[in-house]
Each structure stands twice: as C-alpha cells, then as structure tokens.
C-alpha cells in the first residue's frame, strides 16, 4: 500500500476499521492508490451515514414513537 494512503488511513480510524472489515480494499489501494476517494463513499454506505440511510432511520424512529403513543392511548382507555 502507498505510504500516503497508509498515513491517511492511520489518521482516520473509522476508515481503517472499514478496510479491516473489507480486506478487498487493501488490494484496490495497493494497485490503484488514487481510489482512496472512493473509500470514503463506501465507508459511509457501510456505516449507514448516507442521507437516505439516515432518513430511513429517522423515519423508523418516528413510526416507533407513533406506535408507542397509540399503544399508550389504548392502555389508557
């Protein structure tokens, strides 16, 4: 692996952990060091940090809260 990429990963522990969980990226970065920019996007998908994933998570939490409120109203009667 390129020393610049190695230093970049060591400064970003979240990305380093992503590479450990997905060892194919060692090969990608060894052969094409310029793919370091792609790793950011893939790590966001892996950790659920993309906008659609966060929106879905919030939507699920709102639905759960709504169900809890309905359940509490039913229990009150």
Question: What is the number of independent domains?
Answer: 1
- Report the sheet-strand fraction: under 5%
| Largest sheet geometry | none
Helix-strand category: mainly alpha
What sequence of helices (H) and strands (E) makes up the elements?
A: HHHHH
Number of DSSP strand runs: 0
Low-confidence stretches: none
| Large-scale geometry | rod-shaped
Indicate the radius of gyration in whole angstroms: 20 Å
Distance between the termini: 65 Å
Helix content: over 70%
Average pLDDT, all residues: 93
Helix tally? 5
Task: Tell me about this structure.
The protein has one domain (3-76). Helix 2 (13-21) packs across helix 4 (36-47). The chain has 77 residues and is an all-alpha fold. Helices cover 83% and strands 0% of the residues. The chain starts with a helix and ends with a helix. The longest helix is centred in the C-terminal third of the chain and has 26 residues, at 51-76. The model has no long low-confidence stretch (mean pLDDT 93).
Give a nutshell description of this structure.
The chain is mostly helical. It is about 85% helix and about 0% strand.
Topology:
Elements: H1 3-11, H2 13-21, H3 24-31, H4 36-47, H5 51-76
Helix pairs in contact: 2-4
Task: Please give a handful of descriptors for the protein shown.
mainly alpha; 77 residues; rod-shaped
């Amino acid at each position: 692996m390129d020393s610049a990429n190695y230093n970049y990963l060591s400064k970003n522990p979240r990305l380093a952990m992503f590479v450990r969980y997905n060892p194919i990226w060692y090969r990608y970065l060894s052969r094409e060091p310029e793919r370091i920019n792609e790793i950011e996007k893939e790590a966001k998908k892996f950790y659920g940090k993309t906008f659609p994933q966060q929106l879905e998570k919030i939507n699920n939490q709102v639905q759960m809260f709504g169900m809890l409120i309905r359940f509490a109203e039913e229990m009150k009667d």
